Amino acid sequence: MALTGAVRAGTLSPVAVTEAYLERIATRDETVRAWEYLSPGQVLEAARALSARGPQGALAGLPIAVKDVIATHDMPTGYGNVSYAGTRPVCDAPCVVLSRAADGLVLGKSVSTEFAMASPGKTRNPFDPARTPGGSSSGSCAAVGAGMALLGFGTQTAGSVIRPASYCGVVGYKPTHGLINTAEVKVLAQSLDTIGLLTRTVADAALVASVLGRRPDLMPEGTVTGLRIGLFHTAPFDKAGPGTLAALEHAHRALSGAGHRVSVLPVPDWFEHSHLAHHRVMGFEVTSALAFERLSPQVHMTDMTRDFLAAKAGVSAEDYDAALAFRDLHARKLADLMADVDVLLAPAAPDVAPLGLGATGDPVFNTPWTLFRMPAITVPALRWQGLPVGVQVIGARHADRKTLAAAQAIEAALDYGWTAA
Q1: Across the chain, which distance is largest between two alpha carbons, in Å?
Q2: Residue 388 maps to a domain
Q3: What's a Gene Ontology MF term here (predicted)?
């Protein structure tokens, strides 16, 4: 990452970086509204302290947006909910601690949907404020998409990193479940919740993941050639709109032209049942994880959140156990399906960001990969009628390094070019 290298070399100061990003925030956030909490004096004080001690960490000077469901001891963590507004945790989440230890700079807290579920916050899409930025990691995606941060932390239980990354024209990386520790993050579903990263490039995501996962070997080395890519029309594929279809067609042509082998993989008959399995796993786990919020009169929630929880509460223990068994059995079948390819290429979202701010879009093309706990990466593919749309790169579970290397090669072939909205 050029910025962190310049900060370590002393050619760029953390204070100058912070001032530049605060200026960008002042210019863009009145429209985008990506920030839940921002204190310019606080982050400038941190930047001055970093300058004084001489930044040498891997994330030196990196401006970071932390999703409002991730704990920060020195900034409020309100989970996107009015009853928790202003709450100060006693410690940082591990991902925040490790970022700061690597000399990253937390600019502030980014907007989350309520409890990282369905009820939208105030954030607008940076490319068109009449459209949703997606959710639940809306603020982080929009902040990076609008050039107000270089890294955004998100979380994904269904499609909350991959889908909004596509809507906001950024890279979204959901690692293998468990690669980044989720302690001190508001839990929805322990079998599904994954901390994700929103960045400008795949290389940036790999760098940050290597630090947070304490796995230096995640960083791809060299140029990958001759990828074997399985084009996967995630069922129900009839939900793919013209923007997504154009992105997949463009990717197919560009990757074939770059010397990679793209073949269409058949979608097994059982695959569509993975959506129901995800619903049952999430439903059973979220109603326990949010038992206090769901049952306590002390917590005020939107009607959308209450309705969402009420719908999830109908999942029985028997249905939950059967869904976990389905996941384990079909994860092995999926591994067999992928035996002759390096990664899958699939839709990241049904289409460009939908008009309206009352909903965050459909995670239908994301939930299976979250259920199977596989690494997935949104790579921006093209602009469709002026709006960004990405494709999703999916790798085998625990094969994050290989998946990141493949996504970096796919990114190069697509040649989208990053520009802030």
Answers
A1: 60
A2: no
A3: catalytic activity
Residue 66 zone, left/alpha/beta (φ > 0; ψ -120 to 50; rest) = beta
Question: Which tens digit of pLDDT belongs to each residue from 187-220?
Answer: 999 999 999 999 999 999 999 999 999 999 998 8
For residue 71, tell me if it sits in a domain.
yes
Q: What is the dihedral sign for C-alpha 36, 377, 381, 18?
A: positive
Q: Any idea which residues carry the catalytic annotation? A: 67, 136, 160
pLDDT at position 203 is: 96
Tell which residue, 412, 349, 409, 344, has the closest CA to residue 384: 349
Name the residue range of residue 129's domain.
Answer: 2-218
Report how far residue 357's alpha carbon sits from residue 123's, in angstroms, rounded to the nearest whole number.
9
CATH classification of the domain holding 179: 3.90.1300.10
Q: What is the pLDDT of residues 19-38, one digit of tens each?
A: 999 999 999 999 999 999 99
Residue 45: inside a domain:
yes
| Cβ 338 vs Cβ 225: under 8 Å | no
Domains in the chain: how many in total?
Answer: 1
The pLDDT value recorded for residue 234 is: 98
Q: Decide if 17 is inside a domain.
A: yes
Question: What is the residue whose two structure tokens read 């601690």?
Answer: 97
Say how far apart CA 135 and CA 343 lie, in whole Å.
25
Alpha-carbon distances, residue 274 vs 21, 268, 323, 335, 364 (angstroms): 41, 11, 8, 15, 10
